[in-house]
Amino acid sequence: MKKSKSRIAFEIINYIIISFLTLSCIVPILNILAFSFSSSQAIIENRVGLWPVDFTLQAYKYVMNNSRFWMSMLITLERVVLGVLLNVVLIVLVAYPLSKSELKFPARKYYVAFMLCVMLFSGGMMPTYFIVAKTGLIDTIWSLVLPGAVPIFSCIVLLNFFRGV
Fold first, then answer.
1. Residue of 158, 160, 153, 135 whose CA lies nearest to 145
2. pLDDT at residue 1 is higher than 80
3. For the purposes of burial, counting CB atoms within 10 Å of the CB of 8, is it exposed (0-12), middle (13-18) or buried (19 or more)?
């Protein structure tokens, strides 16, 4: 099947636009990597572009020897493990009952409507902060985990999966 000239032109323009967007995302990352592998003198003199100047691993040695970096990594790991476990458990506990029919769970439609409203019109950052502050969770790992413990969109996806099964 032959492609028309307008279709070929459209594809060429698409490839050009996608290539430009890809480069606009990759170039800053290459620049940051070049900075991280360059000497501090080359960075001060503004000689670093997309390739490292006076290649060195000094920045990585500094970070790897810093105890605050490893403590941050430990907190991140703890947050991810707690968050994922809590998310999976709570999503299943919410989605399974909501996947039942109206006969078995008559109030189902009200809960689903409420969840959709919460998903579309979330309170925002300030109400979340006030809730965290009033419950005494500031400076705890739970202040990072609990506010996002039940992602509504994931509940809806799992709800539809359960209904399909």
1. 135
2. no
3. exposed
